[in-house]
Amino acid sequence: MKSFNFHSIKSVKEAQKLASGKSVYLAGGMTTIPAMKHGLASYSDIIDIKNIKDLSGIKVSSKSIRIGAITKHAEVASSKEVRKSISSLALLADGIGDAQVRNRGTIGGSIANNDPTADYPSACLALNATIHTSNRKIHANKFFKDMFETALKKGELIETVEFQIPTKSSYEKFPSPASLYAMVGVYVAKYKSEVIVAVTGAQSVVYRCKEIENALNSNFSASAIDGVKIKSSGLNSDIHASSDYRAHLIKVLAKKAVTGCK
Amino acid sequence: MQRVSLVINGNKVSREIEDRTLLSSLLRDILSLTGTHVGCDTSQCGACVVLVDGKSVKSCTLFAADIDGSKIITIEGLANNGKLHPIQEALKKHHGLQCGFCTPGMVMSVVDLLKNKKNPSDQEIRDWLKGNICRCTGYQNIVAAVKEAASKM
Ligand SMILES: Cc1cc2nc3c(=O)[nH]c(=O)nc-3n(C[C@H](O)[C@H](O)[C@H](O)COP(=O)(O)OP(=O)(O)OC[C@H]3O[C@@H](n4cnc5c(N)ncnc54)[C@H](O)[C@@H]3O)c2cc1C
Ligand code: FES
Ligand code: FES
After folding, report:
1. Taking CB atoms and an 8 Å limit, are B131 and A26 in contact across chains?
2. Is some CB atom of chain A closer than 8 A to the CB atom of B112?
3. Rounded to the nearest 5°, which phi and psi values hold at A213?
4. Is A21 exposed, middle or buried (CB count within 10 Å of its CB: 0-12, 13-18, 19+)?
5. What strands lie across the sheet with B71-73, from one edge to the other?
6. pLDDT digits (tens, 9 = 90+) for A7-40
7. Which residues lie with the beta carbon below 6 Å from any ligand 1 atom?
8. Separation of CA A21 from chain center
């Protein structure tokens, strides 16, 4: 690994002052460090953001849950507040990678990285999340641009992620046995006014599946999904699964999610 | 360079290290604590798991400078006056290891599990050990050993 300067800082201001074209923010490091070891990325400065107090903590109101960017997956998984208000979100966090990844990986890092097979991006779309950054608020619909690409500008820091509490919701993931990431994951959230169905792992970036949303908006039941046609064109096809198989998984997982909605 | 001070297996350690030093290299290459293994170096296999402030983490995916001031327990810190830790004892009894390469990480991961779950089910043990890959045993005897260790702790 190429050498760099490690900076541990305490405020968002300090972070932004240090940020440059050759720096990177470090949260859990579960993506950044392997990428650096492989020589896929190198930086002159690593800015550790885990000691910035403003980026930590979980706050619940009657309508939403706000999770600090440096909150670890294990903390979301075991949070009583999250379990009570959006249990599917706690379960999603509990199913990310393995125990040691959950002890280090953070929600901010996961969202900023926007891996096409990551779990949290689907939660952001399905739970109408607002991403609060050092500069502005970004709705999840406008945040996830493309594979590993987000609306974040250079040096912009995610501070908190705010999820709207649904009436019921559920997340179902078919994990790749090797990487533990989602081969396909489907998040279903029912609100008074609409049903949202977010799919991860199936395309180059997380997306809302309008076909299933339409079916569930008129009849919220697993059987309503039977008649939906999911086109396999445009879906990922790789050594793990063909696009046809992924199209099939989307329906299977969506039905499971609807049945499991709490 | 950074000065990093840690308490490792109860001993205070302070070293001037390069910023890019991973915890696994600090332990193995600088402090000669070679019980912590490096299997994949890509954050997948879990051979390098140690406890940092009580939580199991992959030491190959952690800069030592990141955890300045922390308390670390490695496999070398488990046995007490020559008496094996219950999970080490149970793995030995149940043939939960063959080549032993995965074992230090496996043991440290189980220590973390049993701190939080007194009597884990087979499924809970298998779920928890997803990040610990063993190429020899087929896991069956590891799960049996974890169950026995749980009952003795
Ligand atoms: C073996 C393994 C299995 C995994 N399995 C899964 C899985 O099943 N599902 C899944 O979803 N994920 C999985 N992951 C990914 C993991 O969950 C991490 O969340 C993810 O790697 C990034 O989070 P991090 O905190 O480690 O970020 P880092 O690696 O520290 O950072 C990643 C990127 O995000 C940027 N960043 C971090 N925080 C912020 C912030 N607050 N504001 C702006 N930018 C920021 C960094 O600069 C960097 O570019 C797995 C990882 C490993 C190693
Ligand atoms: S050596 Fe760290 S996970 Fe394999
Ligand atoms: S005993 Fe050989 S890898 Fe586990």
Report:
1. no
2. yes
3. -60, -45
4. exposed
5. B11-17, B2-8, B71-73, B49-52, B55-58
6. 999 999 999 999 999 999 999 999 999 999 999 9
7. A 24-32, 49, 69, 96-97, 101, 104-106, 108-110, 112-113, 118-120, 152, 157-158, 180-181; B 43-44
8. 25
- Centroid of ligand 3 to alpha carbon of A96 (angstroms): 24
- Mean pLDDT for each consecutive 10-residue tract of chain A (262 residues)? 95 96 97 95 97 97 97 98 98 98 98 98 98 98 98 97 98 94 98 98 98 97 97 95 98 98 96
CATH 3.20.20.70 for domain B2-76: no
For chain B, domain boundaries: 2-76, 86-152
Contact A131, A137 (CB under 8 A): yes
Summarised one tens digit per residue, pLDDT across range B47-104 is: 999 999 999 999 999 999 999 999 999 999 999 999 999 999 999 999 999 999 999 9
Asked if B68's CB is within 8 angstroms of A46's CB, the reply is: no
The alpha-carbon radius of gyration of chain A (Å, integer) is 18
Q: Read off the DSSP letter of residue B141.
A: H
Q: How far apart are CA A136 and CA A17, in angstroms?
A: 17
DSSP classification of residue A72 = B
B41, pLDDT greater than 90: no
Q: Is the ipTM of this complex over 0.95?
A: yes
Q: Round to whole Å and give the CA distance between A184 and A232.
A: 13
Q: Judge contact between B20 and B63, C-beta under 8 A.
A: yes
Helix axes B86-93, B103-116, angle to 10 degrees: 120
Enumerate residues 6+ apart whose C-beta is below 8 A from A6.
A46, A48, B2, B19, B20, B63, B65, B66
Tell me the residue type at B19. Answer: D
**CATH classification (class only), B86-152:** mainly alpha
CA-based nearest residue in chain A for residue B125: A99
For residues A7 and A198, give the distance between their C-alpha atoms in angstroms, rounded to a whole number.
Answer: 37
